[in-house]
Amino acid sequence: MAVATAAIEPETRARRRHPKAGIAYVVLGIALAAAALAVVGPGRETTFALDRTIGDAQWTVPTRTTVTVLALLAALAGGWLLAGMRRGLYRLVSTIALAALVIGLITWAVARPGVVFPVEAVLAGSLFLSLPFIFGALSGVVCERSGVINIGIEGQFLMGAFAGVFVANIADNPYAGMLGAMIAGALSTMLLALLATKYQVNQVVVGVILNLLALGFTGFMYDQLKTTGGYNSPYGVASNALDGIGLGFLSGIPVVGPVLFDQNIFVYIGLFLVFAIWFALFHTRWGLRTRSVGEHPAAADSMGVNVNRLRFWNVTAAGLISGFGGAFFTIANSLAFNKNMTAGLGFVALAVMIVGRWNPLGALAGALIFGFTTQIADYLDAMGGSPVPGPFLQMLPYAVTLVVVAGLIGRAKAPAADGVPYNPGDQ
Questions:
Q1: CA distance readout (Å), 219 to 163, 190, 268, 423
Q2: What is the pTM of this model?
Q3: What does the pLDDT look like over 344-395, one tens digit per residue?
Q4: How would CATH label the architecture of 125-406?
Q5: Helices (H), 172-264
Q6: What is the rounded distance in angstroms from the CA atom of residue 148 to the CA atom of residue 420?
């Protein structure tokens, strides 16, 4: 009886979540439709364009009609959830509802005379802007799947950003700068790994201290290099013809080509890491052991796995990823280092990891959401005069994070032994 109850419980929780999300989509959809009918004039139009692959290909749609139809589509999706649909379609219907709401808002926001919305440029920019979230979230996934909380991603970003541009200037080579950024990140996480595994210090406190240490160290070095000169000059991939690597005829495919096949080298590395880490976590012996020490270290220990040693090297390796992510802020953007230039994105990467439920593919989806809204917000701010403020769209991913953490669209459950020190022989 207990087994049957345990099997039914997830389905019961899923049914309880459906009305909450359904009500939200219905309310938001109806509100957006009503606002469009009341505010948007009947003659307003929105123009979209494929700006990179097909010359002047443009299409114009009536703003009020398009926004209303998309809003009602979201409301219908919410009604479908309220009606009690099959559990397997929940994510698909939720995706349709959210996409309809976002596209509707964008259609309304860019409906201005003479304004053309560059679809391919915005999507390509969204993927590029998602990179720090991808690298930071992947680093967090590897650490927390191993049972170690990595709050220090922000500090690892800072160390990677500084070391990347510093080494690149010394070696006169951006690849050397990338390597230097990775080493700096690994050294930062090695300290976290040592304190967490050997000395079993509170991992959250250590992460916060390491962030402050990185902030102070990079700030001090920045002040020193201002007077020295020559070691903090913009040195990035754009100056070495690595910004926008076209992959032959693939880069000419409409929409997909500019987004996936005509990008910065950091984009290709980031996407490769997502799928490589996903495969390694769920389809290799190392991945099985990593997940076991994060879920039940005593069981892993009983099977001959050295729990603390595996945690130490996994966390150190995760620093290579977050350190490389730090190079995004300097080398990938051809910028010199500035104090606190990461602007808290390391903490946002932790939110992306939670949205992705500690899965590399989920982290990629969460990072794309953050990157897309950041790109749209920047575009609307640059355009000016938009009825939908850019910061409003930019805050949406954070609202999604709160919804996920609250369990409204599926409880985000961390690995069972995450943050719990382990001594050999513990049960």
A1: 12, 21, 31, 38
A2: 0.88
A3: 899 999 989 988 889 999 999 989 988 888 888 888 877 777 666 767 766 7
A4: Orthogonal Bundle (1.10)
A5: 174-197, 203-228, 256-260
A6: 7
